[in-house]
């Protein structure tokens, strides 16, 4: 068995050499980013809500470029302020192909875990009489606010772009880099409060809450779902001290969601129609 120390994750990042004010700017910029993403579509929405993702391949590519450009600018300015190093941002790739395999395994675990937690929560709320069936339906994640399901079914290129660039780059890479930046800032600015596994989990919880609020256009059910997902992805990041396992887990999770939506739309259209019409 190879016991090389290169396979052992390094400790959590320690205090930065730059001053705290610069790291505070880093944190504020990144914290505001998902809040803006969640609030702006709600504030500017007029009339029937359009999907967050454009419904044609060309427009989708432009949208991906725009989203990545905005994030790159925000993240770049935050980095210029803090000058975070690769270890602080969990950017080291370790273990050859293992991050890919772990990403696939974790995506399955995340889907099962989220389904179980949400299923148990719905059952408890229903049996306790806290909410009725109509209220529960209003809390479901509004998938139709994200993507045009008919476009997934009718346009193979559009589906492919969602399975690849949207899932692994715009969602996986962008959002996990953001998460790594937030967690790194919390660890550097408040090392006593966020050291150790308990402190790390609190940092993950804060990042997950911000991450969830960035999905307000999907309704409160979408906020709950993405917060749970963010908790799992953040825990994976701390476990491996690497951004790449959660990037891939996030990508596989989203890609299978798009694939499942397309499958149901093709072979069980009545099921999709019934859910979205309620």
Describe the overall structure.
The protein is an all-alpha fold and 278 residues long. It has one domain. Helices cover 74% and strands 0% of the residues. It has helices at 20-44, 57-82, 98-128, 133-138, 149-154, 156-189, 191-194, 196-213, 219-240, 244-267, 269-277. The longest helix has 34 residues, at 156-189. It is globular. The relative contact order is 0.17. Residues 1-11 have low confidence and may be disordered.
Sheet with the most strands, sense and barrel status: none
List the domain count as a whole number: 1
First CA to last CA: what distance? 56 Å
Mean pLDDT: 85
Portion of residues within helices? over 70%
Beta strands, count = 0
Please mark out the parts with pLDDT under 50 across 5 or more consecutive residues, or reply none: 1-11
Q: Output the helix-strand order.
A: HHHHHHHHHHH
Count up the helices: 11
Gross morphology: globular
- Into which percentage range does the β-strand content fall? under 5%
Based on helices, strands and strand pairing, what is the structural class?
mainly alpha
**How much is the radius of gyration in Å?**
19 Å
